[in-house]
Amino acid sequence: MTFNMTQHGDEWLDRALMQKPVIPDDGFSARLALRLQNYEKRRRIIFALAICAAFLVSVWVIPWNSIFGWVLNSGTMIETFMSTMDIAEAQSAFSQARHMLSSLITLAGLSIAGFAAWIFTQE
Amino acid sequence: MTNLDQELIARALIGADDQAFNRLVTLHQSAVRGFLRRLTKGDAALADDLAQETFFKAYTRLGDFKEEGRFQGWLLRIAYTMFLQHKRRRMNTEQPDDTLDDLAKNSTPAPPIAARLDLERAMAQLSEQERASLTLCFTYGMSHTEVAATLDLPLGTVKSHISRGREKLKQSLAVWQGEVVS
Fold it and tell me: Is the pLDDT of residue B7 over 60?
């Protein structure tokens, strides 16, 4: 298209200004997609690590052993059970049960945290 | 905002479609990169770096986007902020580079076939706010109010930037008077 600047000075300027630059992608989107992919991966790993850390801290800080012990010892089922057994033997059995339970809970929690970490790091 | 933009944003936000944001990038990369190239006076590498930062920020802040505005306007606003931040960082570390300004000021009139290039050169002589206002208003068809919102400037300031910038361009391009350009 040809314009005469003398006759169409302003018009030419406006038209020239209105021309939208068409810039070919040239791998721009692909580079950005890769960067976003890495960002997502990093974000998921950090999130998974945070979950694991929170769980481990909770295992260390929260007195699970005492809580389960309290639940077990205060249950009526336990009282009934204890009344039918030798007290010392029953206490020893429940102490073992408490330790086993807390170990199981820790193990289950770690498995869940590991599984969560695995899920979050998947694409 | 187009329906396609709206749909893609919704899909990107709920995470249902990994490619939704990539499609938004493909749709708007030309506008954002073009705007930044004009702000950086034609420095394509710097403009592309800033465009990458712009889209990255848009990705992490997509939830903040208010649907009453145009998505492209929102992107261009982020791009402008990125440009200002870059400029501020650069000013803190080194002296501003006036090479392009000097080139534009000292250059001899270009032949008619280079009219487009001459416009870009004349644009490079404008202030950043004038360049940004003119580009947003004319090239991207934004209203003065939208330009004011995008650049975070008062409406009156934007109007005067546009009018002053246009006058400066006309003066710079006065050498073309009487020439036939294509």
Answer: yes
Alpha helix positions (H), A1-123 = 5-18, 28-61, 64-74, 76-83, 87-121
Dihedral over Cα of B37, B40, B44, B49: its sign? negative
Which residues, including other chains, have CB under 8 Å from residue B103's CB and lie 6 or more apart? B121
Q: Using CB atoms, which residue from B34, B138, B177 is nearest to A21?
A: B34
Residue A121 confidence class, pLDDT cut points 50, 70, 90: low
Does residue A82 surpass a pLDDT of 80? no
Residue type, A91: Q
pTM more than 0.80 = no
Mean pLDDT of chain B: 80
The C-alpha torsion from B28 through B32 and B33 to B39, rounded to 10°, is 170
Residue B176, pLDDT above cutoff 60: no
**Nearest by CB: B26 against A14, A25, A36:** A25
Q: Tokens standing for B176?
A: 């073309």
ipTM of the complex: 0.71
**Within 10 Å of residue B52's Cβ, how many Cβ atoms?**
19
Q: At what angle do helices A87-121 and A76-83 cross, to 10 degrees?
A: 140
For CA atoms B142, B146, B149, B154, the dihedral sign is positive
Alpha carbon B108 to chain centroid, angstroms: 27
Q: B16 — contact with chain A (CB < 8 Å)?
A: no
At residue A120, the 3 state secondary structure works out as helix
Which residues neighbour B44 within 8 Å (Cβ) at sequence distance 6 or greater?
B37
A61 inside 8 A of chain B by CB: no
